[in-house]
Amino acid sequence: MSAVLDPHGHAAHGGDVHDEHHDHPHGWRRWMFATNHKDIGTLYLLFSFTMLMIGGILALLIRAELFQPGLQLVNPELFNQFTTMHGIIMVFGAIMPAFVGFANWMIPLQIGASDMAFARMNNFSFWLMIPAALMLVGSFFLPGGAPAAGWTLYAPLTLQMGPSMDAGIFAMHILGASSIMGSINIIVTILNMRAPGMTLMKMPMFCWTWLITAYLLIAVMPVLAGAITMTLTDRHFGTHFFNPAGGGDPVMYQHIFWFFGHPEVYIMILPAFGIISQIVPAFARKKLFGYASMVYATSSIAILSFIVWAHHMFTTGMPVTGQLFFMYATMLIAVPTAVKIFNWIATMWQGSMTFETPMLFAVGFIFVFTMGGFTGLILAVAPIDIQLQDTYYVVAHFHYVLVAGSLYAMFAGVYYWLPKWTGVMYDEARGKLHFWWSLISFNVTFFPMHFLGLAGMPRRYADYPMQFADFNAVASVGAFAFGLAQVYFFLFVVLPAMRGKGEPAPQKPWEGAEGLEWEVPSPAPFHTFENPPRLDATATKVIG
């Protein structure tokens, strides 16, 4: 098949691309001035992995301190800086940008669009993250060290921090602006640039979950901006929003923060649901069970996420009626989440299953995320939560959801789409080693924390009584093993693929995979779908 060229000399929808090396800049200009969605997606993914490593180093410093009772390495103030910055860097620097990287790479390919809607804004929203990241990491070197108020930045601690608090607030404003721009781009791309014939209810689930996530981001990032701006004016301009001495209320900060913070939790998991919903049908060689119910469940999660925020605040003295409302609302949000898990299991049921690395991570995700969901249900029960508030049980719960949830889904997505991105197949044995190494070391790290929490060990403390020593030692060993697994993943799976080392990938490396991304060559050419593809009735294949 010879290339079909449009008037500009570019190859139309994924034909053989002969002008591949002549129609785009090379060297640093290609990345600095990138407007191609694939290059920007790559930049996001590399940035987020860098931040994952920085946040991971902070986590390992925390675990090294907690390896045994007594103060080993750092004083309690620096320990609090580590816990605070680990959380902020992982949430805003690692998880969210990684999913935006997936969105940039895959959404145009999956809907048959030539690129994202606003290419230059796409570039801007990425490069905004660099100064923000430098400010976050550099805050350790400011007078008084990094912020030490917890990643939630609760008043009154934030009102007492040094200048690094202002740097952190500025960085989060910039990251929020980047998220809003990225979200606008994703919404406009999905709503306006789908190939003819691809109705909304024929879109891949990954596009659906990102469309809903993007609306969530636009709704809640300004709320976070408001909370941290009020903190800033309390610090420097004499307002007393959160200062009781001037008639303010520190609990009001918690309400505003968690009105952002709980939808944020779903912002970090909905794209993961989308990735898993692409992978499970491919390796079960079946259509996704209950596609429409998955779409409605995703929408329900997004809507319900706005009415559960105060379940983080059962111990702040809210009235019993308030506790009951947030308790039942939190239990209700488990229903659409369970619908998704049942649908994935039903998709696998009697399928022709094979367990390549993407599917291993997908099944690992379902298993461990479900455990995290159950501990969330337990914490939703107000009387139990009052006992477990701010203990290691909570730490175990949200790491099961975020590490085994978001991170495992990202790994699944990387292994699934890496052949399409790089044009080479990763080494399957290395991928499986990475999976088992990660799964075992993750559970060794975080499963004991449930018992520590049930026994009453509070989180964010640099020291602890002797009775907690054994489980902490086990968790610390697991944490170092888990961190090492991710270094192995980058050095021995990602880097060789980026360098083109490995077997050439076919156009469609997975037998059961469906979707437009498998209709273009591997690696995906620089320009794809310049003329919109004509779709078959299922909106998954190009005809003509």
Write up this protein.
InterPro entries: Cyt_c_oxase-like_su1_dom, Cyt_c_oxase-like_su1_sf, Cyt_C_Oxase_1, Cyt_c_Oxase_su1_BS, Cyt_c_oxase_su1_dom, Cyt_c_oxidase_su1_bac. Belongs to the heme-copper respiratory oxidase family. It is a single chain. Helix 10 (270-284) crosses helix 13, helix 10 (270-284) crosses helix 15 and helix 11 (291-304) packs antiparallel against helix 12 (320-348). This protein starts with 27 loop residues before the first helix and ends in a 46-residue tail after the last helix. It has 544 residues and is mainly α. The chain contains 17 helices and no strands. The protein has helices at residues 28-32, 37-65, 76-111, 119-127, 129-138, 157-160, 164-192, 205-236, 250-267, 270-284, 291-304, 320-348, 357-380, 382-388, 392-422, 428-454, 469-498.
Draw up the topology in text:
Blueprint: H1 28-32, H2 37-65, H3 76-111, H4 119-127, H5 129-138, H6 157-160, H7 164-192, H8 205-236, H9 250-267, H10 270-284, H11 291-304, H12 320-348, H13 357-380, H14 382-388, H15 392-422, H16 428-454, H17 469-498
Kindly estimate the percentage of residues that lie in beta strands according to DSSP: under 5%
Number of helices: 17
**Structural class label:** mainly alpha
Largest sheet features: none
Number of domains: 2
What would CATH call the class of the largest domain?
Answer: Mainly Alpha
Q: Which bin fits the share of residues in helices?
A: 55-70%
Spell the H/E element sequence. Answer: HHHHHHHHHHHHHHHHH
Given as residue ranges, the uncertain stretches (5+ residues, pLDDT < 50) are: 1-21
- Determine the CATH superfamily of the largest domain: Cytochrome c oxidase-like, subunit I domain
Terminal Cα span: 12 Å
Provide the CATH topology of the largest domain: Cytochrome C Oxidase, Chain A
What is the annotated CATH architecture of the largest domain?
Up-down Bundle
Compute the CA-based radius of gyration: 23 Å
